[in-house]
Amino acid sequence: MAGYQEFKLTMADVKEILMGEKEEEKQQDDVVTQLEPEVKVKTELKPDDWLCIACNKKITTDKDRFEYENQSEFQFINPGGYYFNILTFCAADGCKEMGEPTMEFTWFPRHSWSYAMCRRCSNHLGWKYIGKYSFYGLIKERLIKGAALFN
Ligand SMILES: [Zn+2]
After folding, report:
1. Which of 4, 24, 42, 93 is 20 to 30 Å from 139 at the Cα level?
2. Distance in Å, CA 98 to ligand 1 centroid
3. Exposure pattern of 82-97 as b/e (b: 16+ CB <10 Å)?
């Protein structure tokens, strides 16, 4: 008898669970509708975009990678002994330049540099170079790839 009662209880539970799930499904539909604008924003971000790691502003894209003498990634050490991984781009609309261009300690011969900062949060992202070529050398660790945010 005890077994039968238990079974009855289980059936009631199952019914409740099924109804509960239906209710949840309905609620999930509502949530999806509400989240639509946010989803739209997310799809505007492309996997090959590079963003400021501090504020996630779009800085540039892989389509704007620039090859300086057949190379678009460099390792440099500054006079202070700091080691930098540098990616080169021909454009970086998310950057604003700061300071007077100078040739002092330049990593790219005959190219002067000025600071390149994030337009939104002023994080120092790298340097703008001007010489035979005009390009940006951005610090890899201060950028985040759009693809990383898709996960
Ligand atoms: Zn920023």
Report:
1. 42
2. 15
3. eebebbbbbbbebbeb
What do you get for the CA distance between the two ends of the chain, in Å? Answer: 53
In the chain, what are the domains?
A: 49-150 (2.170.150.20)
**Ligand 1: distance of its center to the CA of 57 in Å?**
6
* Per-residue confidence (pLDDT) for residue 149, from 0 to 100: 85
Contact 62, 50 (CB under 8 A): yes
pLDDT digits (tens, 9 = 90+) for 55-102: 999 999 999 999 999 999 999 998 999 999 999 999 999 999 999 999
**Distance (Å, whole) CA 17 – CA 13:** 6
